[in-house]
Design brief:
- Keywords: Membrane, Transmembrane, Transmembrane helix.
- The protein is mainly alpha-helical.
- The protein has one domain (2-135).
- The protein is built from 8 helices and no strands.
- The chain has helices spanning 2-20, 22-47, 53-71, 77-84, 87-96, 105-132, 134-138, 150-165.
- The protein is elongated and about 110 Å long.
- The mean pLDDT is 78.
């Protein structure tokens, strides 16, 4: 069972680290696409004689979004991204995104966080599966205390009677072993 648990945790750890390490690469491609969108809008605004206020507003919004993403810290960047993302730029980035193996410090931090979160998620999922499907996974039932049988109760009464009567007499086959039997005094390792 330990091998299955280790394999389960390993798969979740590798998957979490690999998935989370893609975050910086995706954000980098998103920022490139966002910058290209802003540049295209600025060129379109320059070619027009009268610039519509909606276009100016959109250029200012996307420029603020880009500045906020570039200025955010490594750990705050996903939250800033989620708060201010542009759906059209996001759709274009998702369509063109190619997974990569980033070797930056930011990717290592994201990978470590993703690995820890995935291990926690895997442990929670394993616990839920064990609670819901214990017998199918292990072939054993959960251990519930059972009521003592009639024979168990009789054996317990017999044991209680023997203790009240004192030590059992020796027989031809030797002394009877009991729960309160102690070895003879003296050190058995002494020569």
């Amino acid at each position: 069972m330990a091998i299955i648990r280790d394999l389960w945790n390993g798969l979740f750890a590798v998957g979490g680290a690999a998935g989370a390490s893609q975050g910086p690469a995706f954000l980098q491609q998103y920022l490139q696409r966002l910058g290209g969108t802003i540049d295209g809008m600025k060129r379109a605004a320059e070619s027009l004689e009268e610039v519509p206020p909606a276009l100016i507003f959109q250029i200012n919004t996307l420029t603020g979004h880009e500045a906020a993403l570039r200025e955010a810290s490594v750990l705050a960047r996903p939250f800033v991204f989620a708060q201010t993302l542009d759906q059209r730029v996001l759709d274009g980035t998702l369509a063109a995104f190619q997974p990569a193996v980033p070797l930056t410090t930011e990717a290592l931090v994201y990978g470590a966080i993703g690995m820890l979160l995935a291990i926690l998620l895997g442990g929670l999922l394993a616990w839920l599966l064990a609670v819901l499907f214990w017998r199918p996974l292990t072939g054993r039932r959960r251990r519930h205390p059972r009521a003592p049988s009639r024979r168990d109760r009789q054996d317990r009464r017999d044991d209680d009677d023997r203790f009240e009567r004192g030590p059992a007499p020796a027989t031809a086959s030797g002394p009877r072993l009991r729960r309160d039997w102690l070895p003879p005094p003296g050190d058995p390792y002494e020569r």
